[in-house]
Amino acid sequence: MSILENHKRFKDIVKGRIREDFKKFVTQDEMIGKSENDYVKIPVSRIKLPKFIYGAKNQGGVGQGEGQEGKEVPSKGQKAGNSPGEHQVEVEVEIDELAEILGKELELPRIEPKGKKLVSSEDKRYTNISDVGPSGLRHFKKTYKEALKRSIASGTYNAKDPMIVPIKKDFRYKASKPVSKPTANAVVIYIMDVSGSMGEEQKKIVRMESFWINTWLKFNYKGLDTRFIIHDASAKEVDEETFFSTSESGGTLISSAYKKALEIIDKDYPVNEWNIYMFHFSDGDNWSSDDTNLCKDIIKNEFLKKINLFGYGQVESKYGSGQFIKDLKKDFEEEDAVVCSPIKSKDEIVRSIKDFLGKGR
Question: Is residue 336 domain-shared with residue 194, that is, in the same domain?
C-alpha cells in the first residue's frame, strides 16, 4: 500500500471517529481555539491500525498450551503500574471536511445564494500560449504553425512533399491565467448581549455555535466576511477576541445593536451584491416592551428586506427573563427568514444549528 493510500485511509478513520462522536466534537470548546486558516486541530484518541504478528508455533495464545475443557484458568490479576495512560493526538482536519460532516450529520440543505459580486476567482482558463509546459497541454495546431514557419523561413519547405516535423523549439503549450468572474459573497453579523446576566457559560455556547455556523457558511460561499457587535444598553462593533471576552454590568437595550447592524449593512454591503446573515444571542432580557416593539419594527421593515436570514438564539441564564424570544415568535412565527432557537445548555447546540441552517437560506 502506498503512502498516499495510507494517508487517505488514516483520514477516513479520523472522519469516522468524528462522525461517531459528532455531538462531542461540536461542543468541544478547546478545538475551536486551535483553528488556523483552512484547518482545525482536533484531539482524538490514539489510533492503532490492526496488524498481524508472526511468530513460532506453540508460543501460547488462544487454543494453545496445557489444560482440559472446563478447567478454570487462574487469574493473574492487575497490579498498579507506573506507565502512562492512553493519550490523545491532535489531527489536522480541513474546515471543508468538517463542513461536509456537519451537513451530512444534520442533513443540512445546500444554500442557494442570491446576489452577485465581482471577485477574483481561483479558477483558471487555458487561454494563453506558452513555449514551455507539460506534454498533456501541448497545443498541436500552434505547434504545427511554428514548425511550418520555421521550415519556410529556413528554405527546407517542399510544397510537393510538405512533411513538417516539429522540433523542440516549435512546441507550444496551453497556458492558464486567473480570471475574474461573478461569484456570490456573504457576510455574517454576530450580535451578543454582554450585560451582567450573560455569564461565561453562555458565552462559551455562543462561541461554539458561531464557529459551526461560520464553518457551514464558508463551505457554501467563496468569500465570507464576519462582523461582531456587542451590546448592553448601548452597542459597538468589536473584533472577534473582544466579542467573546467582554462583560458589562449595565442594562440591556437590544435596539441599539440592531441599529448598529443596520449601519454596517447600509455602509458596506449593498443588498443586491451580498448575501447577509445575522445571528443575535441573548438571555432574553430587554429594557422595556417599547424597545422590543422597536426591535420588531427594525426586523420587519429593514432586515427582512435586506438579509437572507435573521437568527435569534436565546441562551438560558438564571438571571435572564427569557421574554424576548416569546415576543419574536408571536410576530414572526410564519416568517421563514426569521428563526428563533432556545438554547438551554451546550447539549442543545447541535439542535440549534439545525434550527438556524436547516432551511438552506
Answer: yes
Tally of structural domains, the chain:
3
102's grid cell: 456537519
More confident position, 60 or 246: 246
- Identify whether residues 328 and 243 lie together within a single domain: yes
- Mean pLDDT value across residues 247-270: 92
Same domain, 176 and 188: no
**In the chain, pLDDT over 90 holds for what percent of residues?**
37
Judged against a pLDDT cut of 50, whether residue 88 lies above it is answered with yes
**Same-domain status, 172 and 318:** no
Contacts of residue 170, Cβ cutoff 8 Å, sequence gap at least 6? 143, 146, 147, 150
Indicate whether 197 and 336 sit together in one domain.
yes
Shared domain for 159 and 146, answered yes or no, is yes
Position with higher pLDDT, 295 vs 15: 295
Identify whether the C-beta of residue 129 lies closer than 8 Å to the C-beta of residue 142: yes
Identify whether residues 215 and 100 lie together within a single domain: no
The pLDDT assigned to 175 comes to 86
| pLDDT tens, residue by residue, 313-323 | 999 988 778 89
Angle, alpha carbons 123-91-4 (nearest 5°): 60
The answer to the question of residue 251 being in a domain is: yes
Q: Which domain holds residue 189?
A: 184-357
| pLDDT band (50, 70, 90) for residue 176 | confident
Contact 184, 113 (CB under 8 A): yes
pLDDT in tens, 8-53: 565 666 667 777 777 777 887 666 655 656 777 776 665 555 555 5
**C-alpha cell of 208?**
461554539
N-term to C-term CA, the chain: 44
Indicate the DSSP class of residue 300.
I
- Integer Cα distance of 216 and 196 in angstroms: 31
* pTM of the predicted model as reported, rounded to 2 decimal places: 0.68
Kindly tell me the burial class for residue 41, based on how many C-beta atoms sit within 10 Å of its own C-beta (0-12, 13-18, 19 or more).
middle
CB 346 within 8 A of CB 208: yes
Q: Where a domain ends, among 180, 202, 229?
A: 180
- 18 and 102, same domain (yes or no): yes
- At 285, which CATH number? 3.40.50.410
